[in-house]
Every structure is written in C-alpha cells, then in structure tokens.
C-alpha cells in the first residue's frame, strides 16, 4: 500500500477514496431515514424489489458525483433499469445506491451503498457503506484499502481508518463466503473441489469486504450479477490484496455494454489461486 506522493505505506485513504466515502455517507443517511419509516415496496420488471430509498440515494449520489467530477459519466442501477445508460469511455462511475434491497426489506441491516470509479475496464477506487451497520470500507488500487466505524454525521476525514488486508489461506483450509441455505449444486461442487472447510455468509457487497478483511478466503458467485453490484466491492478487495477472476481465469472487467453490463460467473479470491 503506497502513498501517491511519497511512495511510503499509506496510513489513510486517498483523497478520491474519501470523496467517494463522503458521498456514500450522505446517501446512507437518506436510506436510514426511509429504513426507519413504514416504507412501501414496489417491484421492477424483473420482479426484484425497489423502495423509495433506492431512488433517494441514487439522486443524492448522481448530484454529488456531478459536482465532484462533472465530466465523468455515471452508470447507476435505477437509471439503467429505466433505460438511461450514458455513453461511457475509459473512465466512468458505477453506482448501486442500495445493494441488497431484499436485506433492506427484511430489515437485517446487510445492505450497502456502492460507488466505484472505473478506468480502462478496471475498478480503481470504490466505497462500500453499510449504513445500518455503521461500517464503511474504501479502496484505491495500489494505495490500500481501509474500513471504519461511523455514523451519518461523521466527517470521513476525521474517523479512525483501519487497514484492510487479505490473509494467507489457513493450513486447515479455506473459508468461503457462501449462502448456507441456497448454494445450489454448482456452488457445492466448487466448494468441495477447492477444499473449503467452512462457510460464512453476508448480504450484498459485504461478501467482498469479508474476504478483504481476512475472515474469509474466497467468494464464488455462480449466478447473475450486474456490474454495479460488484465494482465497488472488487475495488476494495483488490486494494486489500485480493483478485476477482472469471471461471476461465480472466480478470473480471467492466464496461461490458455488449452484455448489457451483466457479469459472467466469477470468484473473488483473497490471494491469487494456485495455477
């Protein structure tokens, strides 16, 4: 983890990571306002749930990103669902204003705000914020990943940031982030093939954070995801020393317009897998 100016180990998140963190924090406050109310639940065309919190958070993020980087286009989940997808070049933002709406509706706290900056198909900076849990993780490629405990009125420049770093796989065997109840045969076979000795679970992009934190070693996702679901978590994990690969061993990349911005199946690894 290197500081951009000095080359020394970074002790704090970079300026751009903190900028994204402040935006996520504001969006999270709006989400918590809705979370505390008797909110209604609607459904999109694909039957996935949507609430007022999704729209309120996305509006805040789009406004703040336009102020922060007015020349950088943004692909955001709710706008994309409505067919509003801007032309993007090598540099753009990916936003999921409320990842884990099902968790939000269930009120289990495991939902997140995800914001990532993409450059040349790579998530180079990102923030994952779980407002109900008071946890935020940020990452900036080559400059480290950090997490903090905070509240909506926190100044992100003043909190105590703790470094995130992936771990070596324990001698006893790897721990995977995977659902205990809805894994499916393909995932079960993958876990067995890789000698997984235990599993843990989490909602939304918190799965990436568990691997980045070094409490799990891999997260296989053998189901459909969209780019905005994964970019911020991938940015944090890879800044912490991990890597996200498709099943054929290629890095999970972004700006896949020809696929409708959906992802192939992938595995998030704490450390690069043996060849």
TrEMBL record:
The keyword Ribosomal protein does not apply. GO terms for biological process: 3'-phosphoadenosine 5'-phosphosulfate metabolic process; phosphatidylinositol phosphate biosynthetic process; sulfate assimilation. Residues 1-29 form the signal peptide. Its cofactor is Mg(2+). GO terms for molecular function: 3'(2'),5'-bisphosphate nucleotidase activity; magnesium ion binding. Mg(2+) 1 binds at residues 77, 96, 98-99, 229. Keywords: Cell inner membrane, Cell membrane, Hydrolase, Magnesium, Membrane, Metal-binding, Signal. It is a peripheral membrane protein. It is found in: Cell inner membrane. Pfam families: Inositol_P. The keyword GTP-binding does not apply. It comes from the Bacteria. Mg(2+) 2 binds at residues 96, 99, 229. GO terms for cellular component: plasma membrane. It catalyses: adenosine 3',5'-bisphosphate + H2O = AMP + phosphate. Its EC number is 3.1.3.7. Substrate binds at residues 77, 98-101, 229. HAMAP family: CysQ. Belongs to the inositol monophosphatase superfamily. CysQ family. Converts adenosine-3',5'-bisphosphate (PAP) to AMP. This is 3'(2'),5'-bisphosphate nucleotidase CysQ. It comes from Tepidamorphus gemmatus. The gene is cysQ.
